[in-house]
Amino acid sequence: MHRVQALGSSGISKPEAKLSSILRGIARLLRGWHLLSLDAPTVAASWCAAFLSAAGVSPISAPARLSIAFLALATWLCYVGDRTQDARSALASQNLRARHRFYGNWWRRRRSSLAGLVGTVALTCAATAMFGLKSSLLVAYVSLTLAALLYFAWVHSGRERKTRVLAKEAAVAVIFTLGCMLPALSFAATELGSQLVPAGVLFAMLCWLNCVAIERWEGLGVVNAHAHASTRWAARNLTGLLLGGALAAVALAVWRRTGHRPAMLASLLAPCLAGAFVMLALLERWRQRLSVESLRVLADVALLTPLAWWLAERIAH
């Protein structure tokens, strides 16, 4: 009785209070998902499965499942390593975000548990690669992993800021895209694999703009002066580039529907790409209404359109 009166006196109905509680719970889950570095592996697994589906390979088949599992584990290791190194090498605490402080505190206070978890995941990842991937895909992933490790070592050495050969955001986008596409390209026939390339280029653009948007949002609308010229240009033209990417995805869907093999490419990849571009554009439009941390989390949520597509498909059937 007292609870009802309290709710009534504050002007909040019971349904509104329940909805608010649910939203707070979702927000906490998403924050934990982000801090534990589960965001990037989820995005990678979702798009890897989408590319496999577009290539005519069932994501639930054994070879596909193992490829997706390896990619998710390897992605998690890369992001945890990068965030921990950022936390350890940062010159000032104000340069750190919540995700860096999380791993910095974990490293300083419970280093053995973090090392144990990383070691366990690394062993699982290696076993999955050795016994679950076919040789050609294993070689491709080893090559990509070495390239990624060399790149991260170069970035953390401080030389990346001096040479300016390639923007960090662009390099991450290319590596991430190749990681997601390699299983589909490995399992698909040559002709069908080549048809995935335009969608892959758009996905790389999406990942690049995702990184640029995060850089812009975390700088409160101002990109760091030390950022690459291409990053600063993309940040200034972010909305236009995102809407252009969405239109390009729509054009890809229309073009593939007029071809001979349109089904999964036109009905899955193109709509998912278009939806992700639009969601990032909406976040950019509403960035003044959201906290920096919320924008950072939602930036990766916006890339989960393949999961939304599969969920809608399951509901429809």
Brief rundown of the structure:
It is built from 16 helices and no strands. It is mainly α and 317 residues long. It has one domain.
Strand content: under 5%
**Bulk shape:** globular
Which spans have pLDDT < 50 for at least 5 consecutive residues?
Answer: 1-10
Give the helix proportion (percent range).
Answer: over 70%
Descriptive overview:
The protein is mostly helical and 317 residues long. The protein has one domain. It is 81% helix and 0% strand. It has 16 helices and no strands. Helix 4 packs parallel to helix 7, helix 5 packs across helix 6 and helix 11 packs across helix 12. The N and C termini lie far apart (44 Å).
Give the key terms:
disordered N terminus; single chain; 317 residues; globular; mainly alpha
